[in-house]
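Problem: given the chain below (789 residues), write out its structure.
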Amino acid sequence: MIYFKAMDSERLDIEKALSAFTIEEKLRMLSGDGMWHTYGAGEIPRVKMSDGPNGLRMVDGASAVPSTCYPTASMLANSWDPALLYSIGSAMGREATALGVNLLLAPGINIKRHPLCGRNFEYYSEDPILAGTLAKAFVSGVQSTGVGACVKHFAANNQEAYRMYSDSIVDMRALRELYLKPFELAAKAEPAAVMCAYNKLNGHYCSESEFLLKQVLRDDWGYRGVTLSDWGAVRSRTKSLCAGLDLEMPSSGGIFSSDLRLALKTGTITEGTIDESLRRTLELVDNVYLEPYGDFDADAHDKLCYAAAVDSIVLLRNDNGFLPLTKNMKIAVIGELASSAPIQGGGSSHVTPFKAVSPLDAFAERGVEVTYCRGYSDNAKENRRLFDEAMNAANDTDAVIVYVGQSVPTEGIDRFSLDLPTAQDELINALSGAGHRVVVVLAGAGPVKMPWVKRVKAILYQGLCGQVGALAAIDILFGRVNPRGRLAETFPIDDAELGSDFGGLRTVYRESLFVGYKYYDAIKRRVMFPFGHGLSFSDISYDELHVKRLGNNEFTVEITLTNNSVRDAYETVQVYVSDRTGRVLRPEKQLEGYKKVFIEGKSTAVVEIKLDKSAFEFWNEEKHAFSLCDGEYRILVGASASDIKKEMSVKIDGDFTGRIPYPEAYKVPVRAKLTDEDFTVLYGAPVPPETPRPVKGEHTLDSCVADISSCLAGKILASKIKRGAKKLGKKGSVEYESNLHGGLYTPLSAMASMWGPDMPKERALGLVLMANGHFFRGLKTMLKKKKYK
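Solution.
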């Protein structure tokens, strides 16, 4: 009898279970069961999974199950509040347990390397310390309920273009200090699972990277949980198993079964290799499996969602204290998004919310009388009439609130640019040019260009703030609450200044360590709104700074804050470290600590932030370890990356007294357009060329429809995909492009995993044969009956 956990007192006898399985059962357990479960051989129960970056995404049959829709990760990071992330994690865990979900596929903690990445709304920050500490808190919150958390996407998954094939070329210092650091910090919370990314890293698919899955994750960090694939990320189950990937998700429909059997027969893998992965999968079952139990308080979660939105919305501009508004003002509200502002992004993170409060709903609920007109639309023919209506509505008003934003961001496609729709910019320019007092509310994901930024009275970044975020935004506009959000990413002036390679099949991270605010520091360029920026209705001053040495290269930073206003406020104190030794390539400064504090009106508070030796370290590839440069460092305390209030020098007794030379191009001010030749020195090898796509005779299950579209069957399938995309949106729209790109550039192996009856394994294998010139063999293969379960 194999025992499994039905109650906390019962534990699975893993070794007994392994000894009872047949080799076929073991091979089957290396892959999921359907889309959302592990495979349960014998009496082993199945672990149920659900997406969950900003709420529980679950489908029961054909119906979506409603859940609380929290602000997206991109907004929650603006709170700079690990305690809030813990609370949201535990609330999502309670909803999961009530619905029988055992593993939450969250959080996503990739670095926001480039503001156009289409999935940035699912990620926390451009800074690894902020992203990692928030992720650690979220994981701890989820797992406090008994539900497992799965951090993703491991690693350097920073674009959606060609996401199944793109190769991220990253030097080791940038990898260790930037792109792996959030995962390293989150791993301290012992997440139940780590999900590998779709992309390649330095020439190897992440699902087949022994460097990531064994060397870094297990040997360096001591991680003991399960590793699983992103959905459809496995290209060879044999290679991924040897590299340390425990679980392929979802079920691949048996497409890799024959390869696994052959690998076992030839000794490429052994039963011991299989058992090693299954042991961790069974430990996952033992740790997180429970039948649905309990309930959750939807009203309490709704209040938490509101509190999260209040903490996350950022007041970007407030000219001469124009805000807060008052209810007795005559106010016009303009913009189609006032009736339909997005509350979340699209793709696998999209949840069915219990409610969705629009800005117009929020005005009504708060008893604020406004005059509303649409102002603009997607229909160019309507825009002249709507524009005229808006200009008329703005007459004789005390304030004009204009809601603007780009299309809803979605998984599978990157943003096209930082531009707002032309009609929105023209409307704001015309209103402000006519002398109207304009307040802009920015709905959507991330930075946009704002050519009118100096001409409007105020800008509020509402973002993707969940099911009741519109209420929180209204309460800030009218002073019911004091704004407290701080940007977790830089808002640049123009996308022409971004500099970094982005969006190709091969993406070279030439900027190395210089990402986000570190990049703008390095090239000495001004930004629109800096990392860490956010305004309050209160006046907070930074007074005395004391830095106390605690021990060997550990310090306590104490800063005295004074709230000079009557109104209570929150302030986020940010501590940056600047390496003045000059021994190695370093950013001008980097965030190493922070704390969000509440300060009563007309009072003083002393804020204490600890820095351990990791705040001063760099990755020393020669030693395969972090090292400390011996010498002087500056401790910088500020309200943003561009607003340093106080600073002080400290001496570090480091183990590294030498120098590591680096190219002239990386010396401040760093050259804005770096070359492969510049980067080669940091990378330690010539930059690899882009891998050519396969041609006739070279096709495998790793090929996609775009690769095989020259053969008849591929051409037919490509046309079908294009017709399907047209049904979802006009050409050039996010809906059209995301579905077209997803259909054309998904590997056939992944299609067999995720397309169900539209792409059984026989059809995928048959397409490969046809694309390689074997039409009749391919047709015969397609006509075979499916036998795999």
